[in-house]
Amino acid sequence: DTGVSQNPRHKITKRGQNVTFRCDPISEHNRLYWYRQTLGQGPEFLTYFQNEAQLEKSRLLSDRFSAERPKGSFSTLEIQRTEQGDSAMYLCASSFVWQDQISPLHFGNGTRLTVT
Amino acid sequence: GDSVTQMEGPVTLSEEAFLTINCTYTATGYPSLFWYVQYPGEGLQLLLKATKADDKGSNKGFEATYRKETTSFHLEKGSVQVSDSAVYFCALNRNAGGTSYGKLTFGQGTILTVHP
Fold this sequence. Notes:
The structure holds two protein chains of two kinds. Chain A is an all-beta fold. Chain A contains no helices and 13 strands.
C-alpha cells in the first residue's frame, strides 16, 4: 500500500493560466474524491468518481473546473483561467466500495495552488 | 444541509493534560461520524470513527462517543503527548438506505499544541 499520491506538491501560477493536478489513488480503490481546503477551514467536497464515472459534482465546482478519471485509475483536476480565489490546497482521497459498504477515505498530501 | 461545528482553537496544553475537543453536528438521518488528524506536513489520517448512536470509537488513546441525543461526537484523551500536536477535524458522512456515500462534511479544524 503506497498510499494516495498527488502531484505536484506545490503549484504557483499567474491569474488566467490553466493548471492541472494529478492524483494516483491506492491501486485497489474504486472510488476517488477531490476536496478543496482553504486556510483555517476544513476540506470541502468537490467531486467524486466510482471507477471512471463521475457520480457527483458540488455546486462549488464552477464551469472552469473539470475532473477526469479516464481509465478508472488516476485522476486529473484541471482549473481553467485561474483566479486568485482558487488559491487553496486541493486534496485527493480514495476508498473501496463493495455492495453497500465503503472503507474509510485515505487522503493524499495535497497540491497547494497559489494564484498570483 | 449537513454541517459540523468544532470548538474554536487553538488549544494549548501541557504534556499529560486531559484533552477535550468538542464537536456537534447537524444532519438528516443517521450519519457516520469521524475524527481525522493532520500532523504537520502530512495528509489527513483517519483517527477514529463511529457509525451508530452510542458507539464509541477509539484509537491511540483517543476516544469519542456518538451521542445522538445531543448530536455530539467530542474527542477526548486522558493524557496528551507532544507528538499529539496536530490539527484535528471532526467529520460526518451521511448514510442513506444503508449505503455510505463517502462524501464527508468537515468541521473547520482545531489546532492542538502540546508543550513538554
